[in-house]
Amino acid sequence: MGSAQSKRRSSSKFISNEFIRRIVVLGKTGAGKSSLANTIFGEKLYETDSSANSGTKQCQAELREVNGKSIKLIDTPGFFDTGRDEKEIKDEILKCLIESAPGPHVFVIVLTLDTHTQQEEEIIEKMTEYFSDEAFKFTTVLFTHGDQLPDGRKIEEFVCESKYLDNFIKKCGNRCNVIDNKYWKNSKDDYRSNKFHVTELLKTIDNIILENAYGYYIHENMKKLDTDLKQEQEHLKEESPDLLPDKIQEKAKVVVQEKWSRYLLRVSIGFLLKTFLSNDSHLIREELLHALGVVLTNLFITAAQRATLAKFLCWTTAAVEEATAASEVAAGKAALK
Hints:
Blueprint: H1 2-9, E1 21-27, H2 33-41, E2 60-66, E3 69-75, H3 86-99, E4 106-112, H4 118-130, H5 133-136, E5 139-144, H6 155-160, H7 163-171, E6 176-178, H8 194-211, H9 220-239, H10 245-263, H11 269-277, H12 281-336
């Protein structure tokens, strides 16, 4: 694993520092994604919380220079967690798609080094399910809580001890890094130093970009999203020529977010994650057909209910009229007597 990484890293210097690397950070709630982002940037840009309900609630994107390299880092909530409001999660997934448009250069999957529970295995299983083979070409794994690594051990050695971790890292091109957001800030040990491992992570990121020929992860749905963003920006330029470019970009994002939120109202969270992480058009068509089926079923039920109600009203009206007529006849007969 290590020798393969060394071969890739030797070419990272060829990427221009001005080249903006779009990086999406994924992982479960509480894995240390936001703290990792702060460690990479060397400043507190992302809110962190050590309480029981800790975890990023919203997608957040920041653009900064790190070691002279332009980095756009997109921090995300725990998309793979359960128990959160479905609409809230879908809105944040969509925001992540918009912020990483036209597509991310790298996915960084964050796992904790100290707790490999059944829950963590389930998270890895979900990621394996949602990630396509193509998406894995753009992916690396980063472990937090590096202080749990035994003295003298390297992260590659630790990974090899766990079959399910080793298999997962292999899917990610045998790429993995480690960091400690708390204890490795001023370490004198070269290996147990955040400065060293941030540099190593940036090398890994550059090598993924080089291996993919400066390309980024994209598929048809993301192309459509990017087209909508560009068209909205052009519309805003014509409508408000004095508006600054940054303001135009932000306004376009809001408009497109609202538009796509309505479009994706009836699709599942799983579909959105597959849209983001899988290029399997069959799965996407299947989910859209399912959503369309749900809509049509609801329409048929509503129509049937309305038809039944109409029949009931007609029957009630006829019954009332019949009863009224019978009452009038009875009253007439009584009067004759």
